[in-house]
Amino acid sequence: MSIITTRADEDFRGRSNRRRFFAARCFEGRVCASAFARRIVYFCGARVYNEYKAAGGAGRSKHLPFRRKEEIFMRISGLQKTTLLDFPGRVACTIFLNGCNFRCPFCQNSEILDGRGGEDIPEEELFAFLRKRKGILDGVCVSGGEPLVHAETLELLGKIKALGYGVKLDTNGAFPERLKEAARAGLIDFVAMDIKNSPKNYAKTAGVAVDMAKIEESAKFLMESGIEYEFRTTVVKELHAAEDFIRIGQWLRGAKRYFLQTFRDGDTVLKSGLTPCTDAEMQTFKQLLKPYIPNVLIRGEE
Asked: Residue 161's Cα: distance from chain center in Å?
């Protein structure tokens, strides 16, 4: 590896392993000057690029294997150090991974959806925290964003499990193969899968076109896998109606556990102007689900 690669690695000390690896790959390869300037400054910083340019490296023409524009590098964008609510039966922390393939109007974590907002917590810092908290915490919730949008998430789950923690995964169900791989490898102990709406209104509620076959595959897998799970729907007056919950009940008939969650507005919600349903409306939706899913609860009443 060249001297420049080593210096790039030093510049990234304290950042995530993924970004240090990316810097090393950049300096091992060659790329046209304009593409290099745009991308290396964004991912690696202007000082590193200027050092490369001063060393005579800019302007080379071979293609460097950058990720496609729509792909996002996994970052740990937030850490809630203690939660008694997110992981049933465990004292846990919650980590938030950047990036999501959905754009739900009611999302509370809109600042991290495109992969650029939130914090940038180095992986080394996370695992130092987890080692220090052994014996106090016994679980880790991995949330987002959508964690499974990144193939690297499975490696992260394995590292957490190796420390002896239970792992809960929050997912929208859009990546059934990665969900199955994580479950079959013993990387997850509990899954909370969001059910955005009835199949007919899924795209409207997810904010993007949705492959319902994948959502249905994930739900079916959880119901048959033996892994602990729950389904949950954040209920928004402008997006959900009584008929939707009848359709959801018919779809998920016999599910182990289903939660209705009252929408809460806030500064980080993706779309303004949304409102929660009344307590009476939430109770009505609960009763519509009960013939199909006996164990249905409104979050907070359990």
From this structure: 18
Domains of the chain, by residue range, sit at: 3-54, 76-298
User: The domain 76-298 belongs to what CATH superfamily?
Assistant: Aldolase class I (3.20.20.70)
Going residue by residue through the chain (302 aa), what tens digit of pLDDT does each one get?
332 333 333 343 444 444 444 444 444 343 334 444 444 444 444 444 445 445 555 443 333 333 444 456 799 999 999 999 999 999 999 999 999 999 999 999 999 998 778 999 999 999 999 999 999 999 999 999 999 999 999 999 999 999 999 999 999 999 999 999 999 999 999 999 999 999 999 999 999 999 999 999 999 999 999 999 999 999 999 999 999 999 999 999 999 999 999 999 998 899 999 999 999 999 999 999 999 999 999 998 86
C-alpha–C-alpha distance, residues 258 and 229, integer Å: 9
Query: What six digits make up the tokens of 96?
Result: 């938030």
Neighbours of 35 (CB within 10 A): 12
